């Protein structure tokens, strides 16, 4: 309750700040609640999302000996409240909290200058490091319930730091300095210690025609990191969030640094799309050796109702059905997708395991803010066994 009170206190404070300029506020709905001043220099957006997941398992006994008994279950995967906007035309801010775990974990909590060096912006706070097309695409818009295995294994996601960035549909870049942080935006170690990471990404479209209905995206990302505590551990779930353990895991490796290189490609041709990423992680072990681990995924999707997967400023965006679902009326948008992903965490003295996943998806977009997602996942761990899962998500965001 305390966290909800803090959230709404922030809303009231920011609304009061906007009105302090002596301008009337216009309230509108743009797939979320928006308050805008007359001269557009102040803008406040209030939103959130709910994702309720259900999972049903079937697994080999050899898998359950590692993971423990796999029980069917349900969870609120995410329960966000968000306030974001602009002040005085050039100051951006966002405060987003996830209440799904029973407390208020930080998600995007930052402020920034929209333009500070030419057209480049500066962002400071807790937010996603610029790495990976799939990670930069909001979980409101990803095609499958969970991101592919290499994303959890290699991509740094949200941390505290500073970033210069610029984005449009033709070219996007971001480069920043970060420190690993916990769920409340606190650095994982003393700030004075030299465990900083440098992360950068460049991406863009080689061509973009018919208002994004035909495009080719390419991207490249890199991060160099010094691990806190001189220890690195790389592991990932089999794209099933309720899976109680990771089935491929390097365990702790004594290391003084590691680097990850990521490449991206995506293609949209009308209702058809393709997306893939390949990642290579190199870990410098304390004994002087170096080990390399790889992961990749590729997926295809097709809209049976003719829509195209929308692209915006270096990532994918919200699907808007040609006809919203109404009883006796429109059908909404229907999408089918198939993904293959692979992880190899074996190299030299490290035997973290190999895993291949196949995921089949059916998505029903009732309207731009609501969708029902169905996934079937088959995970095959080399020399261990297989696990299958049928998953459902009921999703609404605003």
Task: Provide structural commentary.
This protein has 398 residues and is mainly β. It has a single domain (2-397), classed as Beta Barrel (Porin). It is globular, with a radius of gyration of 22 Å. The strands form three sheets. Strands 3-4-5-6-7-8-9-10-11-15-16-17-20-21-22-23 form a 16-stranded antiparallel barrel. Strands 13-14 form a two-stranded antiparallel sheet. Strands 18-19 form a two-stranded antiparallel ribbon. The mean pLDDT is 92. The chain is 9% helix and 58% strand.
Element layout with pairings:
Layout lengths: L1 H18 L5 E5 L3 E5 L5 E17 L1 H7 L5 E15 L3 E8 L6 E13 L2 E9 L4 H4 L12 H6 L3 E10 L3 E9 L17 E13 L4 E12 L5 E2 L2 E2 L11 E2 L3 E17 L2 E14 L4 E14 L7 E2 L2 E2 L16 E15 L2 E18 L2 E12 L3 E13 L1
Antiparallel strand pairs: 1-2, 2-3, 3-4, 3-23, 4-5, 5-6, 6-7, 7-8, 8-9, 9-10, 10-11, 11-15, 12-15, 13-14, 15-16, 16-17, 17-20, 18-19, 20-21, 21-22, 22-23
């Amino acid at each position: 309750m305390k966290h909800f009170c803090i959230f709404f206190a922030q809303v009231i404070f920011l609304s009061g700040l906007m009105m302090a300029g002596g301008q009337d506020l216009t309230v509108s709905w743009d797939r979320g609640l928006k308050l805008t001043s007359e001269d557009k220099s102040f803008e406040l957006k209030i939103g959130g999302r709910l994702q309720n997941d259900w999972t049903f398992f079937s697994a080999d006994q050899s898998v359950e000996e590692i993971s423990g008994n796999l029980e069917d279950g349900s969870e609120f995967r995410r329960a966000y409240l968000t306030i974001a906007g602009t002040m005085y035309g050039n100051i951006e801010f966002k405060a987003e909290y996830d209440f799904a775990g029973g407390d208020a974990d930080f998600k995007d909590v930052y402020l920034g200058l929209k333009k500070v060096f030419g057209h480049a912006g500066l962002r400071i706070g807790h937010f996603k490091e610029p790495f990976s097309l799939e990670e930069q695409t909001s979980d409101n818009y990803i095609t499958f319930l969970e991101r592919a295995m290499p994303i959890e294994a290699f991509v740094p996601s949200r941390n505290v730091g500073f970033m210069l960035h610029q984005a449009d549909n033709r070219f996007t870049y971001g480069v920043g300095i970060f420190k690993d942080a916990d769920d409340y935006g606190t650095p994982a170690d003393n700030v004075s210690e030299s465990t900083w990471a440098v992360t950068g990404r460049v991406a863009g479209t080689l061509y973009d025609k018919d208002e994004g209905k035909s495009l080719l995206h390419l991207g490249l990302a890199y991060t160099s990191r010094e691990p806190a505590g001189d220890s690195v551990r790389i592991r990932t779930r089999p794209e099933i969030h309720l899976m109680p353990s990771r089935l491929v895991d390097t365990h702790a490796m004594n290391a003084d640094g590691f680097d990850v290189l990521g490449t991206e490609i995506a293609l949209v041709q009308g209702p058809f799309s393709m997306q893939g990423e390949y990642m290579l992680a190199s870990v410098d072990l304390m004994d002087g050796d170096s080990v390399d681990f790889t992961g990749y995924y590729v997926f295809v999707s097709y809209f049976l109702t003719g829509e195209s997967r929308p692209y915006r400023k270096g990532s994918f965006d919200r699907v808007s059905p040609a006809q919203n679902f109404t009883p006796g009326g429109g059908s909404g948008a229907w999408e089918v997708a198939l993904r293959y992903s692979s992880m190899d965490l074996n190299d030299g003295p490290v035997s973290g395991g190999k895993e291949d996943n196949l995921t089949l998806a059916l998505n029903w977009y009732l309207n731009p803010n609501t969708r029902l997602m169905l996934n079937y996942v088959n995970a095959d761990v080399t020399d261990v066994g297989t696990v299958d899962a049928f998953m459902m998500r009921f999703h609404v965001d605003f």
